[in-house]
Amino acid sequence: MNAVLNELNVPIRSEADLVTARLRGREIASTLKFSSSELTLIATAISEVTRNILSYAGSGDLDLRLVRQGQKVGISIVARDRGPGIADLFSAMQDGYSTSGSLGLGLPGSKRLMDEFDLASEVGKGTTVTMTKWKM
Amino acid sequence: MNRSRAPILKLGETLIASVQEALMDADLVGLRDELVAEVKKYRATCVIIDVTVLDVLDSFAARTLRHIAQMTQLLGARTVIVGIQPDVAFAMVQLGLTLEGTETALDLEDALSRLKIRVGRERSAQ
Amino acid sequence: MANHETLPAETSISREEVLRRKAFLEFTEDDVAVLEGVNDLATQYAESMIEDFYKHLMAFEETRTFFADPELLRHVKEMQKAYFMRLTQGHYDQEYVANRIRIGQVHEHVGLPVKSYFGMYCFYLRAVLKRLREEYGEAPEQAFAIFNSLMKLTFFDIGLAIDTYIESRERTIEGQQEAIRELSTPVLLLRPGLLLLPIIGLIDTRRARQLTEQLLRSVRTNRAAVVVIDVTGVPSVDTKVANHLVQTVEAARLMGAVSIVSGIAPDIAQTMVRLGIDLRRIRTVGDLQSGIEEAERLLGYRVVKERPADGQGEKEGP
After folding, report:
1. Could you give the number of structural domains in chain A?
2. CATH code at position A28
3. What is the pLDDT of residue C40?
4. Average pLDDT score over chain C
5. Which element (helix H / strand E) includes A17?
6. Strand ranges inside chain C, DSSP E
7. A63: which strand partners?
């Protein structure tokens, strides 16, 4: 299990929160001295999962956590919503799959940006994306 | 309206939209609509969108930029996206966003020289 | 706490980690009590223990060299005595751990081999066992209990010490890797607007990322319009590496730069086709010379030979 060193919650209610989420993500991740390109990868992944919350559930929450696992430290991002959930998890992770008219790169793309990625969803209950980037 | 966040300048037959701060989705969509309308209105042949200040270009932003390029193309104008930062370009390709079919240039100066728009010479010739 | 901060980040062990280690060794408050109980006894035989200990060390060439200087030997004996006494003084807390890590770092720093370190601990345990047998000849159960507790604590110490060895090696390797990576990714400015990225050796994900980052930064700082990526020196390519190459080319294009890949070896070409890499997205040429020529053409340069090369020119001169 990961030990949590620091945690920050960003409520996602409207589009304006998307910019806030990216900013907060950069701020908290930069305390671990991630390189500037890693910070951009993190901010981009945050943007994608936050966008997912906004377009499918309307609102939700983003937890930004600095975590430690053994000797390594990293940032863990948990995007939670109580939206309709995803019926077909397999398809949701395929490039180009979208039910909202987007490019469908959000979830599979975010997975490529981060080191660890986990998607849990229950139809009618909501979706939780947990993704982690370790400091190399 | 996005006027303050991404003002559009007119330079001959070229429209230059320079993004001034992080854009919200509505701003981007506003910019798209505005650009398409102005290309038509001024019979512009080139559109340059300067995104130097953006520190993230996610799938929505990339899609909107591509749409702008495609729409203006239909109206007879070519669009060049300029100023994508190294870190942003790196993140975009990791995400799978390559802006295929869209022209890119290093910065405004680079785009203007590629489009053979020489501001200084035009003026001195007059 | 201030002390704790000055340790290298890798060796600072959290309170939770200390508890985990103790739990795994089943080192409990009972053990603490047992060890504290023999503090007086330990004080009695500390002196002779340490003398025996160094007699043993001095009997072997490999360890003798570390204590050649008599002044140093006197000093380390003092330190050793303090270390030994500390084993039965209780309070096996963060400060204890920090002290043990420091001792490990000192031994690692002077280059004491791990095998000697283990040998020294073994001698320690055997020497203590011998004295416990003498002291508790009538009550072997008690001797056994004391030895048991001491063994747990000793292994706790060994764990900390060996960690410092491993971490130091890891830091060294990491530093070397970093140096190698930096040496191996030069981005050269050939002409205004033209960059050359010669890739030599194997590429892993980490190096590929670094290459890409460095190239993209150079595109910006040099205002490059064309990049030649020469892979003549790359011995093999797998799907990952090929994808990195494609990504690098695409990222450079997002910044407005055209990439030309040169020097793809025949077997790598075969691999790439078999892997189904989309080559339409990469502009390729056979060798580096063609790559540079193509780049110059794109930039509008025309290279003209004005006169024979210097060597020949001199012969024809007056």
Report:
1. 1
2. 3.30.565.10
3. 87
4. 84
5. helix A16-30
6. 188-191, 194-200, 226-233, 258-262, 283-285
7. A9, A78
Mean pLDDT of A28-35: 92
User: Under an 8 Å CB criterion, which residues of C touch B?
Assistant: 212-213, 216-217, 219-220, 223-225, 247, 250-257
ipTM, 2 decimals? 0.88
Structural domains counted in chain C: 2
C137 and C208 fall within a common domain: no
Residue by residue, DSSP assigns C35-78 as: HHHTHHHHHHHHHHHHHHHHHHHHTSHHHHGGG-SHHHHHHHHH
| Tens digit of each residue's pLDDT (9 = 90 or more) over A96-119 | 666 665 556 678 889 989 999 999
Amino acid at position C28, single letter? T
Chain A residues in contact with B56 by the CB 8 A cut-off are: 22, 40, 43-44, 47
* CATH classification at residue B100: 3.30.750.24
The pTM (predicted TM-score) of the whole model is 0.69
Do residues C210 and C241 touch, judged by C-beta distance below 8 A? no
Question: Is C149 inside a domain boundary?
Answer: yes
**Which residue matches tokens 């003084």?**
C89
Residue C18 and residue C51 in one domain: yes
By residue range, what is the domain housing residue B53? 8-120
Taking an 8 Å cut-off on Cβ atoms, the answer to whether B106 and C212 are in contact is no
To the nearest whole Å, the CA of A123 is away from the closest chain B CA by 25
Range(s) of the domain holding residue C259: 188-299
Q: What is the pLDDT of residues B41-82, one digit of tens each?
A: 999 999 999 999 999 999 999 999 999 999 999 999 999 999
